[in-house]
Write a structure and sequence with these properties.
Layout: H1 20-32, H2 46-54, H3 60-64, H4 68-75, H5 79-93, H6 101-108, E1 113-114, H7 119-124, E2 129-130, E3 133-139, H8 145-155, E4 168-173, H9 180-189, H10 194-199, E5 201-205, H11 209-225, E6 230-236, H12 240-245, H13 252-272, E7 276-281, H14 301-307, E8 310-316, E9 321-328, E10 336-342, E11 345-347
Helix pairs in contact: 4-5, 8-9, 13-14
This protein binds adenosine-5'-triphosphate and magnesium ion.
The site of magnesium ion has 5 residues, from helix 8.
């Protein structure tokens, strides 16, 4: 694996590169980040724009992804005003409304995949943890979910395949298990400067499920402020606080509704800013490590099942070895591989 440390001050594209392709890439990137302030040119008041920004809506795409009811709540007004906003968004984004399948395929070339640190696990995932989607890893305690989260914090900062240059990371910790010192040994493995690695990770501790949701507004604001710089958002773990906050009888429906809202926000963020969203999850019962055909039960029900694009189960095996089993994916075959947890993070068994 390449060991060049990314320089966060580097622009996404080399300035000297003026090929047509590069210009097209930049244009597409700009379309993706059409700022919500453009609405002012279409008669929307700056006060209303500020309200949208305060609610974490920073781009035209972000406003288009939000339903009228929600926009009415944010603006504190009736449908008429919101209809004007929607109309203005359509005008601004009209040229990009419909695209051909080939253009869509071109857009997908902007997707990137982050290495897990294990070639076998990368292969299982079709190349790694993909941007513009949610990847979920679930498994019992000590299965390696947090270790993979830490490893991704480092590998996301390194150049990868398809011209990926590396980027910054946001880590939302709900279980208080983030360890900056753990990043040092992982950075050492890849010959990276641990201090630079740590500086490229923004950390937030979430204290309850509402706080976890609120933090997503800050995430969106950060992704917008430093457009194209952040490449990965980690939530370790997605359900822990929901489990505590909605533990009473008859609270499941309420929990699922709130969870659905949060996951919808996460999905939008991943698409709006072309970032990889990586979440970990717990299971309901312990798994026996030797059984390959155990029934795996991640928590979060159908809401989480539908929101996660790719779901992987981690099972404990002998010593530091672990099994990763692909549980659900839109385009990958069911399969399983072995990897190990080392002082340098997630690695192949024979590394
Ligand atoms: P939980 O559900 O409790 O959060 P988890 O799946 O997040 O569990 P991890 O914390 O990722 O579990 O993995 C714990 C495993 O990682 C333990 O087996 C531990 O021995 C191993 N581990 C932790 N730090 C190191 C290290 N520095 N070197 C090697 N192995 C380590
Ligand atoms: Mg953990």
């Amino acid at each position: 694996m390449a060991a060049r440390m990314m320089d966060i001050n580097e622009t996404e594209k080399p300035l000297s590169d003026t090929t047509e392709d590069t210009n097209a890439d930049i244009e597409e990137e700009e379309i993706c980040f059409q700022d919500i302030v453009l609405l002012e040119e279409h008669g929307i008041s700056i006060q209303d724009i500020r309200k949208l920004q305060a609610a974490g809506i920073n781009t035209i795409k972000g406003a288009q992804m939000t339903i009228t009811k929600k926009l009415c709540e944010i603006i504190g007004s009736n449908d008429e005003k919101v209809a004007k906003i929607k109309e203005a968004c359509t005008k601004i984004s009209l040229p990009n409304c419909f695209i051909t399948a080939s253009e869509f395929s071109d857009q997908r070339k902007h997707l990137f995949k982050l290495s897990t640190g294990s070639n076998a696990l990368d292969k299982l995932l079709g190349g790694g943890v993909e941007s513009m989607s949610i990847t979920e890893v679930f498994g019992e305690f000590r299965a390696g979910k947090t270790q993979l989260s830490h490893t991704l914090c480092v590998t996301a900062q390194m150049p990868g395949s398809n011209g990926y240059l590396g980027g910054k990371v946001i880590f939302i910790d709900t279980e208080h298990t983030f360890r900056p010192e753990r990043l040092r040994t992982i950075a050492d493995r890849f010959n990276l400067d641990p201090l630079v690695v740590q500086d490229n990770i923004l950390y937030a501790r979430a204290y309850n499920s509402e706080h976890q949701f609120e933090l997503l507004n800050n995430v969106a604001a950060k992704f917008h402020e430093e457009a194209g710089v952040f490449k990965l958002l980690i939530i370790d773990s997605i359900m822990a606080l929901f489990r505590v906050d909605y533990s009473g009888r008859g609270e499941i429906a309420d929990r699922q509704q709130k969870l659905g809202q949060m996951l919808s926000r996460l999905q939008k963020i991943s698409e709006e800013y072309n970032v990889a969203v990586f979440i970990t999850n717990q299971i309901t019962t312990d798994l026996t490590t030797t059984q390959q055909d155990v029934v795996l039960k991640p928590i979060g029900g159908n809401i989480l099942a539908h929101a996660s694009t790719t779901r992987v189960a981690f099972l404990k095996a002998e010593g530091e070895k672990r099994i990763a089993k692909l549980y659900d994916s839109p385009d990958l075959a069911e399969n399983q591989v072995m990897f190990s947890i080392t002082s340098g993070g997630i690695a192949d068994v024979n590394d």
